[in-house]
Write a structure and sequence with these properties.
The radius of gyration is 18 Å and the shape is globular. The chain is of the alpha/beta class. Strands 3-2-1-4-5-6-7 form a 7-stranded parallel sheet, sandwiched between helices. Helix 4 (95-110) links the parallel strand 4 (87-90) and strand 5 (120-125). The chain has helices at residues 17-28, 41-53, 68-82, 95-110, 138-158, 184-193, 202-212; strands at 8-11, 32-37, 58-62, 87-90, 120-125, 163-170, 224-227. Helix 1 (17-28) packs across helix 7 and helix 4 (95-110) packs parallel to helix 5 (138-158). Helices cover 40% and strands 15% of the residues. Pfam families: adh_short. This is Glucose 1-dehydrogenase. One of its GO terms (molecular function) is oxidoreductase activity. InterPro entries: NAD(P)-bd_dom_sf (IPR036291), Sc_DH/Rdtase_CS (IPR020904), SDR_fam (IPR002347). Keywords: Oxidoreductase.
Length: 245
């Protein structure tokens, strides 16, 4: 039996990369999906078509997650279309947008009767930058730490209402965005050095999100799930700098 048959998932930033991978993994298991995008309409429509080919329904919705009114309108439109939101995945990269998405998802889920074991599942996509103080990434590192603590706080607040809130910390994932920052040579060399011997792919995160969004994770809330192919544990200390006279 498909774990999300008859359920609806809303995924922000679902037109490309990790968000698209999550949307497709949920659809493979029976979910109807709200495909949110900000600026890649063609890619969002393509993702929606793949969802339909998998047998699900898809609603494509343009909204900038930093615009609270736009996100509120998206949730209303999704509920008007599907009746409820069972899974909300806050994937889009803008940090304050995570707050809007999670809070509005929780408000909607609190109105809903339980379906299965819970009223709803919220999954936040963060980063191993939350754990590792990468140089020259102070603002980004800090924002991911804040996102994760928000999720822990919400998990504590919503446990009694049977709404699960969990986080995924992806490692280095092969997405179109990575090629804006790294050359193909950099990516090939970096992949070779990773403990798992390859970069992650969006499906790796999608499968993890599907677990956390399912009844299989009924007793899991406030958890940070690292999906990094051993990246963190494979770190080594730099060589000691030579002493100067």
């Amino acid at each position: 039996m498909k774990r999300f048959e008859g359920k609806t998932a809303l995924v922000t930033g679902a037109s490309l990369g990790i968000g698209r991978g999550i949307a497709l993994c949920l659809a493979e298991e029976g979910a109807n999906v709200v495909v949110n995008y900000r600026s890649h309409q063609a890619e969002a429509e393509s993702a929606a078509e793949e969802i339909r080919q998998l047998g699900g329904e898809a609603l494509v919705w343009q909204a900038d997650v930093s615009d609270r009114d736009a996100i509120a309108a998206m949730f209303k439109g999704a509920v008007d279309r599907f009746g409820r939101i069972d899974v909300a995945v806050a994937n889009a990269a803008i940090s304050f947008g995570v707050f809007h998405t999670c809070q509005l998802a929780a408000q909607q889920m609190l109105k809903q009767p339980r379906m299965g074991r819970s009223r709803g599942k919220i999954v936040v996509i963060s980063s191993i930058h939350e754990e590792i103080a990468f140089p020259s990434s102070g603002a980004y590192n800090m924002s991911k730490a804040a996102i994760n603590h928000l999720a822990r706080t919400m998990a504590a607040e919503l446990a009694g209402q049977r709404i699960n809130v969990n986080v995924i910390n992806p490692g280095w994932i092969d997405t179109p965005g990575e090629r804006k920052h790294f050359s193909e040579e950099d990516i090939a060399e970096g992949s070779r050095r990773l403990p798992w011997g390859r970069m992650g792919v969006p499906e790796d995160i999608g499968k993890a999100a599907a677990y956390l969004a399912s009844d299989d994770a009924d007793y899991v809330t406030g958890t940070i799930l690292r999906v990094d192919g051993g990246f963190v544990h494979g770190l080594v200390l730099p060589e000691a700098a030579a002493e100067t006279a």
